[in-house]
Amino acid sequence: MQIVVVLGVLNAPLILAALLIWLERRFLALLQDRYGPNRVGPLGLGIVLADMIKIFTKEDWIPPFADRAVFILAPAVIVVTGLMSVAVIPITETIGVTDLNIGLLFFLAMSSMGVYSVVLAGWASNNKYALLGGLRASAQMVSYEVFMGLSLMGVVLLAGSFSLREIVEAQRDVWFIVPQFLGFAIFFIAGLAETHRLPFDLPEAEAELVAGFHSEYSGMKFGMFFVGEYVGVTVVSAMIVTLFFGGWMGPVLPGIVWFGLKLLFFILVFITLRASLPRPRFDQLMAFGWKVLLPLSLLNLVVTAGVLLLLKT
Amino acid sequence: MTLIYYLAAAIAVISTAMVITRTNAVHALLYMIVSLLSLALIFFTLGAPFVAALEVIIYAGAIVVLFVFVIMMLNLGAEATARERQWLQPVAWRGPAILCAILFVEFLVLLVAESGQTGAPAVVGVKRVGAALYGPYVLGVELAAMLLLAGLVGAFHLGRRVPSDGEEGES
């Protein structure tokens, strides 16, 4: 039974990533008043299959000037770390791969290991644009990791545990979005920066850096970055649902449906942001992080701890 | 659990040796990440999951990323690799290797003499680590905090731009 759950949880993000390619293109088109891909199959869903055939059959070229071993390793890292994080997310009361008592820290650890994928890809490509993309990625992701971790400590204080399942259980009365709105806002922005999605996609800013860290990648290795990005979006959305929106909890409908609906909502928010926000300059991004988000997340932590102490005494 | 421990320990030893012997700096750092990850696994098998997670987040996830960042900025080419290779002549490491071998033998002897008191250690949770840090070891935490603050101030001073030297100041 557990093996079915493990395989399901492992494969669901990959299938979801493939579907997200279609969803993102259709939804973006809707927001921008165009049709999007609508020719192949019902609602244009055949584009998923066509895209997959294309990406698997393209020539997978490794540039002769690249560092071969690291070049191959880099795209694998982002997908592996993304899928590892999925393992600690409790989907319903009974479904979930593992119930690690440091689940939250495990997620943070995996997201910090994911940095290597982008950084090493940029370095191994031996291309100045890729290198610049990699440099930007490492600075951006290391910085935003700090606030990401700090913003979650309020939730940990309220729940009194690092276990994601216990955090969901602690939201039986009131979702943590109410007492931890600031934490949620910081986590959301940091999550956006960690997955380097638009508007924070400076590591691959195509207007300045060709395609940033993955300029030299083609075929399925590029596909891995693509899948990794969507897995990242799914994981961050799932974490938002778990930490701030009560996970599987909700009236009438079964838990898995609630989890799916909440997850879909946050994925759509991610896509909407891509359609609506411009990209900041890199120094603006870093200054915003260190000068606004860091003090705010520290304030959130101090105030939450203070209020909890007051209530206790 | 014991098997996992020994496997992780073996990986830690091998990868650490690889860190020292690689001539390409980024490859060495990659092995260092592996070494830190195996250390985290060792902590985990010894019943310290919190320390294991911190090991990955702080060492593997932040400090080594900064190392990689600096190496990338320096953009060392093939000549740096060649120079490293020159430094790693057998003459250079023969002496330390012999001394290390003696230490290793001593360690093995002690290990064999001490054997007998094994057994699964109790799991040390987050709360116990926190209580220890802010209880008996609070002075150490405070001192480390001061050291880090000094580092922070120093970094700020070095990175500060003087607006008057003709450069465009930070807006």
Summary, kept brief:
The complex is a heterodimer of chains A (313) and B (171). Chain A has 313 residues and is an all-alpha fold.
Commentary on this structure:
The complex is a heterodimer of chains A (313) and B (171). Chain A has 313 residues and is mainly alpha-helical. Chain A is 68% helix and 0% strand. Chain A has eleven helices and no strands. Chain A has helices spanning 2-31, 46-57, 68-86, 103-113, 115-124, 128-159, 164-169, 181-194, 219-244, 255-276, 282-312. In chain A, helix 3 runs antiparallel to helix 4, helix 3 (68-86) packs antiparallel against helix 5 and helix 4 (103-113) packs antiparallel against helix 6 (128-159). By secondary structure, chain B is an all-alpha fold. Chain B has two domains: 1-105, Up-down Bundle (Four Helix Bundle (Hemerythrin (Met), subunit A)); 125-160. Chain B contains seven helices and no strands. In chain B, helix 1 packs antiparallel against helix 2 and helix 2 (25-45) runs antiparallel to helix 3. Chain B is globular. The model of chain B has no long low-confidence stretch (mean pLDDT 80).
